[in-house]
Amino acid sequence: MAEVVLAVTGGIAAYKAIDVMRILQRRGHGVSVLLSRSAERFVTRGTFSALSGRPVGTTLFPDDGQLDYDHLDFARRADIVLVCPATAHAMAEMAHGLAGGVIGTTLLAFDGPVVVAPAMNPRMLAHPATVANLATLEARGVRIVPVSEGLLADGDVGPGRLADPVDICDAVDAALAPGELAGVRVLVSAGGTQEPVDAVRFLGNRSSGKMGWALASEARRRGAVVTVLASNVALPREAGIAYVDAPTAADLHRETVARMPGTDVLVMAAAVADYRPAAAVQGKIDKSASDAMRLELEKTPDILTEVTAARRPGQVLVGFAAEHGEDGLQRAREKRARKGVDVLVHNDVSVPGIGFGSDDNAVTIIGPGDAETTVGPTSKAACAAAIVDVFAGLVTHT
Ligand code: CTP
Description:
- The chain is of the alpha/beta class.
- The chain has two domains: 3-176, 3-Layer(aba) Sandwich (Rossmann fold); 185-392, CoaB-like (Rossmann fold), CATH 3.40.50.
- It is built from 13 helices and 19 strands.
- It has helices at residues 16-26, 45-52, 73-77, 88-96, 102-108, 122-126, 128-139, 165-176, 210-221, 249-259, 303-309, 328-339, 380-397; strands at residues 3-8, 30-35, 80-86, 114-118, 143-144, 148-151, 157-161, 185-191, 195-196, 202-203, 225-231, 242-245, 265-268, 275-277, 297-299, 316-323, 343-348, 360-366, 372-379.
- The site of cytidine-5'-triphosphate has 13 residues, from α11 and β16.
């Protein structure tokens, strides 16, 4: 059974954390409790230390007597951290990585699964700041237990009540369960390469990295050991995923080839430049030098084709094809055969509102064999789940 660190922050729902702790204990988990300063106004340290039989973390400073814990003890001990209830303020602190108290310090020093059960007034929940903080946490792989709706302690009615304690404990157990990809090493390339023209300019593309990020997150959620090769992606990074920056096609080529022997599944979601300036100019090109200019380009190595040709038995390879227009799907089918990958994910970049930079996508997953699965338009997270479903099946059967 697992060691759960239960971080209680200060809302009226704090008393329900006692129920949550009891259920977790009945399920066989060890529970250590952290209380924020404002949580202590609703529930007492004595209640939690009596019921948990363990020291309760409340402060980083021994100003109220000898501390019976070190400030990193809880992070070291935890298999999982549950923040319940999580106030708007607690989530803002988490989103910004603030470590002013024992809860923030524990969360920053912990890279395992984190579950957050929010509870607050509906207007605070709907505020753009809270919405953005929740999105940041989710993008980092934090599991959010959705609030329920109803009459709140302050008389307002709407979404904001703490979820049912049993549902919260189910979310903890789900996060602890070994996923179907437990131990599988997944390498995901994400973003778009930038090829230097001179010291200030580059040739790039419109890929934001959101699809690769969603795939990495989903694979990790299912237990995979995930490394992301990031080509110029400005998105929040998730604890528990390794990130390696690979800004150019040459960097991505080198990093991918070097990592293939230790990879079980390669997901090549990055938009890789097919051509790059044959020679990047030192310094900055001066426009007064001539009225027109020619840029000589050379082909970049086709990474996917190269690693597919050198694959070892059991390795699963997933490619992407961003095609434009009507014949795109047929071109993607041909591309899959040409590249020799197990699965090729086609998306039509001519459709407005999906694809590059957007939070949504619509894809056709071609393979394995003759199988074709069409998904969306829907969120990139939902597309990622469908893509991982497909390659997870291949890993199990190889
Ligand atoms: N890819 C790659 N190395 C390259 C170019 C592309 O590994 N130098 C990968 C992409 O990451 C993607 C897949 O190959 O997974 C298909 O990319 P795409 O640009 O659509 O394919 P190309 O082979 O370049 O085909 P096209 O002739 O349509 O440009």
